[in-house]
Design goal:
Layout lengths: L23 H9 L2 H20 L6 H15 L5 H50 L5 H4 L1 H7 L6 H7 L2 E8 L12 H20 L5 E8 L3 E3 L2 H16 L7 H5 L6 H14 L6 E7 L6 H13 L4 E7 L14 E5 L3 E3 L4 E3 L1 H16 L2
Parallel strand pairs: 1-2, 1-4, 4-5, 5-6
Antiparallel strand pairs: 2-3, 7-8
Helix pairs in contact: 2-3, 2-4, 4-7, 4-8, 4-13, 8-13, 11-12
Length: 365
Amino acid sequence: MAKADQGYTRARSTSSRGGGGRGRAFSTYAREATKDELAAFYLRHQLKGILDILGESPQSETAMVIRQGLAEEYKETTMTKAQIEDAVYTDASRDGAQALLGNERRTAMAQEAALLVDTLASATRDREVENLDEGDWLDDPVALIADGSGWGEERMGAREFRKHVSIAVDNSGSTHMASTGYCAHAMSVVANSLLEVLYTASSQWPGVTWDAYSFNRITRSHTSRFGRQERYELVRQSLAQVVVSDPLRTDAIETNLAPLIERMYETEEERGLLGSPRLDIILTDGEFESQADADEAAEWQRRRGPGVTTYVLNLCPETPSEVALPYQFRVIPLTCVTGDEHRKEVDGEGLRQALMQIVLSEMGK
């Protein structure tokens, strides 16, 4: 196992609720509603949260199963009307706080998405011009614009441009410890922001696709068929009231790269992406399991074929590692964890800028 992973313990966070009181409209509704009406409101809120995670429609068969399960769960509950009201209020307060905190992030995301779209447009224009004979566009620019072979028609370039981006976040035990500034949280936040940028840009450039992963001893997919299967299984376990132990306690004691690259290969094979342009960004604290694992990862990387560029962003380059990653992985040291032995923190803004710089550079190729 990686040296620092074995010391992982799951920290319990505590929080207190403060701030303004219930809104008048909800207070009035809660006072006048029956317990069953209030419970129905709460169950709808719970159902929406689950369906948002799964990406399912409220009219789908999965939604019907979950709705029935929640209803059965409520029938067996001993919650009072006051407790249900408090649960609704807690969820609403949390959602409201997240919305306020997310405004600034969404603004930055929109700006970065626009920058990425501009980069894609420029890259495609360059390719179109390279395909012309010297002097053609100077001799007859009007004809070039009219027939879509020159600068005037970007939609043609959008269809031609293809690049698949894979984002992977190290979720091993060492990333949840003070020695790394609890960098797992910062890496997840920055990765999610980048995925939002890619999602926004892909609405104008359908050739831009992506996948998201987290890895430690095993690899978890958060997109593609593999991700859907894992989410469905979690919902089924929840509805069946199956107690699932904290996966970090069993899986975080190792940091394996080979299962991650293997899962990338399987996903790309299923989607027909092998051989097409692909970009990987792996966020890690630099603690990998063994040289044998790294060498196996190199073999899976070879099977992925040409067209893959893989960056490994090491947030803790000052920590010595006994594992040397093969040449197929471009390791970039980032001094993102700052502070002293008593308090460490992650420079999330520096990490975000590093990711965007890599993506913009690679998308322009």
